[in-house]
Write a structure and sequence with these properties.
Elements lengths: L1 H21 L6 H22 L4 H24 L5 H21 L3
Helix pairs in contact: 1-2, 1-3, 3-4
Organism: Paludisphaera mucosa
Keywords: Cell membrane, Membrane, Transmembrane, Transmembrane helix, Transport
Protein name: Guanidinium exporter
């Protein structure tokens, strides 16, 4: 359950990054409030996971999920470049996440 909560918290990190961008420097009320809400959920999930998983592993996986998701969202929604180097680097982050999970055990 801790891994599932951690992954969901990482996905909420992607959401708050999206809302941070669309808030246009906190000048748009809706996205600004959505940013605060999704950031709160993301941090709460990370915090809960830290009670059940090693701190370094949980934090690295949380940021990795957020980094991969945010990079892919940028490519998909904002037309950011999808170069081979960029996609390969995203793949390496995914490998790192998988390696950390394997090293910590599946439980």
């Amino acid at each position: 359950m801790a891994w599932l909560i951690l992954i969901v918290a990482g996905l909420f990190e992607v959401a708050w990054a999206y809302f941070l961008k669309t808030s246009k420097g906190f000048t748009q009320l809706g996205p600004s409030l959505a940013f605060l809400a999704t950031m709160g959920v993301s941090m709460a999930g990370l915090g809960w996971s830290l009670n059940h998983l090693p701190m370094g592993t949980a934090y690295a996986v949380w940021t990795g999920v957020g980094a991969v998701g945010t990079a892919l969202l940028g490519i998909w929604l904002f037309g950011e470049p999808a170069t081979a180097l960029r996609l390969g680097s995203i793949g390496l982050i995914l490998l790192g996440i998988a390696g950390l999970r394997y090293a910590a055990g599946a439980g």
